[in-house]
């Protein structure tokens, strides 16, 4: 199975990764190889196998609904690039 | 052409847990920005989510209340998209195996019919933070206190066929989750948010039309307006021979207009996959039975009880039983006031009007059910007239005084119901109005006579300084004037 340049460009946009033309050609080949491997796997008969939700054969532990976290805003905001009035500042987002 | 309207809803319900769905951060509303956003909520490297037991308990209680199958084994997926108020770059949600499976809700409509709306499923997920787009030197401010607040997203089947039905269902759902105590129901603070899917099809056709989704409606009124608006927009397009584009729209309630947010072709590709940080959650019989034992009286049962216990009619019982807080207020007033019907009238009249005028919820009411009940007692035993009672209500509301009897005394609102004293006043007033008395006695038409009685009431109320019992005055007048 092959993957088109358009697919690669779209996935790069979704993942917010900058990919130039040269890299697209290389990715076309590499991702194509990976998808070929997936095709091989898909050929195996898995009709009687239940899809795996998690590699560990265990169930999730739940936590009691009690506040255990304290306010550590100062510590977290010390490593943020920009803050003001207790807010994290980010480049303007407009819908 | 005649069209059928087809509506399905997706409702985000904020769960009233103390902490977030995957961390022990508080969810209390109104805290200083980012003081309740900690390592897990901020997606710091090396953190792991641990689900909140109560979020599951509340979701299961909801499932039981809507007659749904409970997901014995439920899983979390990641829904990937980039937005600054979503620190992880994905929302942890449920796709393949939600906690609540198919169920239904029966909704009483205004025309007396009952409509069954099927629930497709409901799943647990986390809320995002808030973006503030006021100008911070050309940047946006992000408050992540809300990030990680547990939500259930309830998805209905497209079973509603008008704005009225959709709103009636939405109100019923609001009533259910507030009665269950799993959501505070405060829509102005975003505790319940509605997305509406709408399509039209030629009347009687079994082929569904292309739908649009109008997102993030946070009041019943906007929801009703947004549906009316969208139905009209689609109808105009279809009748002009156009076609509907599947898209997401935003409705601006203040301007009654909508605009396209994104079309399906450019819709986000969320690349869902199972969340490797979370194991499957197994819900056993004990957990379900424990949740069942916590179910309080639900709105339908409460409505039936209000009819039975207080003798309310269907309409009054429906109105007073829907909202859990209003229902509790009514029961307190009825217990103190002894006259449930009168208490019901005052709650639906003066009390509701006042709440609405000041945009307050029942919880924010300055008066208690007990105080209203005390007032009802004084109306019922004729201590105050209804005009006087309104003055007492006003004084209670403004906090001038919190005791009904003290207000009645202080404002001199006590009605005179001593028949002897009232008769003396009537004699005196009639003696001063011989012409009107003669005119009344010469009138043959009973209707006109009745009307003429009113002419004596003004002077009587004046003579009694407004404190004479109008009903007794009326009886005495009729007797004295010779019927």
UniProtKB/TrEMBL annotation, chain A:
GO molecular function: ATP binding; glutaminyl-tRNA synthase (glutamine-hydrolyzing) activity; transferase activity
The keyword Mitochondrion is annotated on this UniProt entry: no
Record's keyword annotation contains Nucleotide-binding: yes
Pfam families in the record: GatC (PF02686)
Catalytic activity: L-aspartyl-tRNA(Asn) + L-glutamine + ATP + H2O = L-asparaginyl-tRNA(Asn) + L-glutamate + ADP + phosphate + 2 H(+); L-glutamyl-tRNA(Gln) + L-glutamine + ATP + H2O = L-glutaminyl-tRNA(Gln) + L-glutamate + ADP + phosphate + H(+)
Keywords per UniProt: ATP-binding, Ligase, Nucleotide-binding, Protein biosynthesis, Transferase
Enzyme class name: ligase
EC number annotated for this UniProt entry: 6.3.5.-
An example Gene Ontology biological process: glutaminyl-tRNAGln biosynthesis via transamidation
Purpose of the protein: Allows the formation of correctly charged Asn-tRNA(Asn) or Gln-tRNA(Gln) through the transamidation of misacylated Asp-tRNA(Asn) or Glu-tRNA(Gln) in organisms which lack either or both of asparaginyl-tRNA or glutaminyl-tRNA synthetases. The reaction takes place in the presence of glutamine and ATP through an activated phospho-Asp-tRNA(Asn) or phospho-Glu-tRNA(Gln).
Subunit structure: Heterotrimer of A, B and C subunits.
UniProt record similarity statement: Belongs to the GatC family.
PANTHER family the record matches: GLUTAMYL-TRNA(GLN) AMIDOTRANSFERASE SUBUNIT C, MITOCHONDRIAL
Protein name, as recorded: Aspartyl/glutamyl-tRNA(Asn/Gln) amidotransferase subunit C
TrEMBL record, chain B:
Domain Asn/Gln amidotransferase: 328-481
E.C. number(s) listed in UniProt: 6.3.5.-
One GO-annotated biological process of the protein: glutaminyl-tRNAGln biosynthesis via transamidation
Catalytic activity line of the entry: L-glutamyl-tRNA(Gln) + L-glutamine + ATP + H2O = L-glutaminyl-tRNA(Gln) + L-glutamate + ADP + phosphate + H(+); L-aspartyl-tRNA(Asn) + L-glutamine + ATP + H2O = L-asparaginyl-tRNA(Asn) + L-glutamate + ADP + phosphate + 2 H(+)
Keyword annotations from UniProtKB, A to Z: ATP-binding, Ligase, Nucleotide-binding, Protein biosynthesis, Transferase
Domain of life: Bacteria
Gene3D superfamilies: 1.10.10.410, GatB domain, N-terminal subdomain (1.10.150.380)
Enzyme class at the top of the EC tree: ligase
Single GO MF annotation: transferase activity
Main function: Allows the formation of correctly charged Asn-tRNA(Asn) or Gln-tRNA(Gln) through the transamidation of misacylated Asp-tRNA(Asn) or Glu-tRNA(Gln) in organisms which lack either or both of asparaginyl-tRNA or glutaminyl-tRNA synthetases. The reaction takes place in the presence of glutamine and ATP through an activated phospho-Asp-tRNA(Asn) or phospho-Glu-tRNA(Gln).
UniProt record similarity statement: Belongs to the GatB/GatE family. GatB subfamily.
Subunit field text: Heterotrimer of A, B and C subunits.
Protein name: Aspartyl/glutamyl-tRNA(Asn/Gln) amidotransferase subunit B
Species the sequence originates in: Marinobacter pelagius
């Amino acid at each position: 199975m092959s993957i088109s340049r358009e697919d690669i460009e779209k996935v790069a946009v979704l993942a917010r990764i900058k990919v130039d033309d040269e890299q697209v050609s290389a990715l076309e080949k590499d991702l194509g190889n990976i998808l070929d491997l997936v095709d091989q796997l898909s050929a195996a008969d898995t009709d009687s196998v239940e899809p795996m939700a998690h590699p560990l054969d265990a169930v999730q532990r739940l936590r009691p609904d009690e506040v255990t976290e304290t306010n550590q805003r100062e510590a977290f905001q010390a490593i943020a690039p920009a803050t003001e009035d207790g807010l994290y500042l980010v480049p303007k987002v407009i819908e | 052409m005649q069209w059928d309207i087809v509506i399905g809803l997706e409702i985000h319900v904020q769960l009233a847990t103390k902490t977030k769905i995957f961390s022990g951060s508080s969810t209390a509303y109104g805290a200083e920005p980012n003081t309740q956003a900690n390592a897990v909520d901020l997606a710091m490297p090396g953190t792991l989510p641990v689900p909140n037991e109560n979020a599951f308990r509340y979701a299961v209680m909801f499932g039981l209340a809507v007659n749904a199958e409970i997901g014995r084994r439920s899983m979390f997926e990641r829904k990937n998209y980039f937005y600054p108020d979503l620190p992880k770059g994905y929302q942890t949600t449920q796709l393949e195996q939600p906690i609540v499976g198919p169920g239904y809700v029966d909704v009483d409509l205004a025309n007396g019919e009952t409509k069954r709306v099927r629930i497709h499923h409901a799943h647990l997920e986390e809320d995002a933070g808030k973006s503030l787009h006021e100008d911070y030197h050309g940047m946006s401010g992000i408050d992540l206190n809300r990030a990680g607040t547990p939500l259930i997203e309830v998805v209905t089947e497209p079973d509603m066929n008008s704005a009225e039905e959709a709103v009636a269902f939405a109100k019923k759902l609001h009533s259910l989750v507030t009665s269950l105590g799993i959501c505070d129901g405060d829509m102005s603070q975003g505790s319940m948010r509605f997305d509406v899917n709408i399509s039209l099809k030629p009347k009687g056709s079994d082929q569904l039309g292309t739908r649009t989704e109008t997102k993030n409606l946070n009041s019943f009124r906007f929801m009703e307006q947004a549906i009316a608006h969208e139905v009209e927009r689609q109808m105009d397009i279809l009748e002009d021979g156009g076609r509907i584009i599947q898209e997401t729209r935003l409705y601006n309630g203040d301007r009654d207009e909508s605009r396209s947010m994104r079309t399906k072709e450019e819709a986000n590709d969320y690349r869902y996959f199972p969340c490797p940080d979370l194991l499957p959650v197994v819900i056993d019989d004990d957990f379900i039975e424990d949740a069942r034992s916590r179910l309080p009286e639900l709105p339908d049962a409460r409505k039936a009880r209000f009819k039975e216990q207080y003798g309310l009619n269907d309409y009054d019982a429906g109105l007073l039983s829907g909202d859990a807080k209003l229902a509790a207020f009514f029961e307190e007033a009825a217990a103190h006031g002894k006259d449930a019907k009168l208490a019901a009238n005052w709650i639906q009249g003066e009390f509701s009007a006042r709440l609405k005028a000041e945009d307050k919820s029942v919880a924010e009411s300055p008066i208690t059910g007990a105080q209203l009940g005390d007032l009802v007692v004084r109306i019922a035993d004729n201590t105050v007239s209804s005009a006087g009672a309104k003055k007492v209500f006003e004084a209670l509301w403004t906090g001038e005084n919190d005791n009904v009897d003290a207000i009645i005394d202080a404002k001199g609102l006590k009605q005179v119901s001593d028949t002897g004293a009232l008769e003396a006043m009537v004699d005196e007033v009639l003696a001063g109005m011989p012409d009107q008395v003669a005119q009344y006695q010469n009138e043959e038409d009973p209707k006109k006579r009745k009307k003429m009685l009113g002419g004596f009431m003004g002077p009587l109320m004046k003579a009694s300084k407004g404190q004479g019992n109008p009903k007794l005055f009326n009886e005495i007048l009729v007797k004295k004037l010779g019927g």
